[in-house]
Write a structure and sequence with these properties.
alpha/beta, Udp N-acetylglucosamine O-acyltransferase, Domain 2, 8 helices, 22% helix
Length: 356
């Protein structure tokens, strides 16, 4: 690793244009890797603090800023006018497009994994917008690997030292999205333009939001779910489900998403059968919800579906008014992860559909 100070010298407009042309031609495609064996390149107008730790093959463009506590991995690229502040670490092969800002001069830390792209004028790892936050408190953001964060997106650090804002791996966060303080995002999610997540939202894996989705704080979005465009979520979204609406409502199973993610026809058929029996039985002979649940549990094709095996306990929680916040405090067996996941993601649908 190299420690190198920036050089800032007066240059005429003509000279700057020449440097810019030379520098731009040295860039490779955003998705291409940079040979870390090449020496690092620093544009003369870039300001790189002498204490910054810079890897091999790093390119820092015109008018960039790299603070004293920054650490850049091998092969990182900073396009013109991008900035890194505070205690911020970038893994190998990260790309900051023009105008991107990463990190903040606040107590705490921002950690970005490898092979991440941060788009034009995106703001990542800055102070949260929680009125309870105190500037003396440490705040944190952890981002995994292979994420693409597009233009004008904002991602905030946590609101307290005991929490972290977390983004997993392989997520696509499209333009003008907002990820608020203390959110927890899993892996392989897609957030279309203008998706807004309030504080403490949890998104599991392989979820997909269409454009202009608004999610209320503390909501949970289950794995393999789909949120229709323009939806406003004030309650949890169960896994495998599709919801939409100005006040989002259940619209059915996310069949297309399940097929794309490799679910077998047998698995999809089992989910479809359970869904219809539980939530679409409207004739007089369908019986109470408990009777329908018992019928599904005894169904030979559904006996091994995890969502069915835990339904009875979910009904008890839903009818007693125990929500997800209280459920988190329950002492469930540590080895019963499947039950806990299903319990958390299915409680809402029962609360909204069961009779009072």
């Amino acid at each position: 690793m190299l420690r190198i100070g920036g050089i800032l010298r007066p240059l005429s407009a003509v000279t700057l244009r020449c440097f810019s042309r030379t520098f731009s031609s040295s860039y490779v495609s955003e998705k291409s890797s940079v040979d870390a064996l090449y020496p690092s390149f620093f544009h003369p107008t870039a300001v790189v603090h002498p204490d910054a730790v810079i890897g091999q093959g790093v390119s820092i463009g015109p008018f960039c800023t790299v603070g004293p506590s920054a650490k850049l991995g091998d092969g990182c690229q900073l396009y013109p006018g991008s900035h890194i502040f505070g205690d911020t670490e970038l893994g190998k092969q990260c790309v900051l497009m023009t105008g991107a800002v990463v990190g903040d001069d606040l107590p705490g830390r921002t950690v970005i994994g490898c092979n991440n792209i941060i788009g034009y004028h995106a703001v990542v790892g800055v102070k949260c917008q929680d009125m309870k936050y105190k500037p003396v408190d440490e705040c944190f953001l952890d981002v995994g690997d292979n994420n693409e964060i597009r233009e004008h997106t904002s991602i905030h650090r946590s609101s307290m030292s005991s929490e972290r804002t977390v983004i997993g791996d392989n997520n696509l966060i499209m333009g003008s999205c907002h990820i608020a303080h203390d959110c927890k995002l899993g892996n392989n999610n897609i957030f279309a333009n203008n998706t807004l997540l309030a504080g403490h939202v949890v998104v599991e894996d392989y979820a997909h939001t269409a454009g202009a989705v608004v999610v209320h704080q503390f909501c949970r979005i289950g794995s393999f779910s789909f949120i229709g465009g323009g939806s406003v979520l004030s309650k949890d979204v169960p896994k495998y489900m599709m919801v939409s609406g100005e006040r989002a409502e259940l619209r059915g199973l996310n069949f297309e998403g399940l097929r794309r993610r490799g679910f077998s026809d047998t698995e999809i058929k089992s989910l479809r059968t359970a869904y219809r029996k539980l939530f679409m039985s409207i004739d007089a002979k369908s019986g109470s919800f408990e009777e329908r649940l018992a019928e599904v549990e005894q169904h030979e094709e559904l006996a091994h579906v995890p969502i069915v095996s835990s339904m009875k306990m979910v009904v008890e929680f839903a009818r007693s008014g125990i929500g997800l916040a209280l459920e988190e405090m329950l002492e469930l067996p540590k080895n019963n992860r499947i039950f806990k996941l299903v319990l958390m993601t299915e409680t809402l649908i029962l609360q909204s559909l069961l009779p009072s």
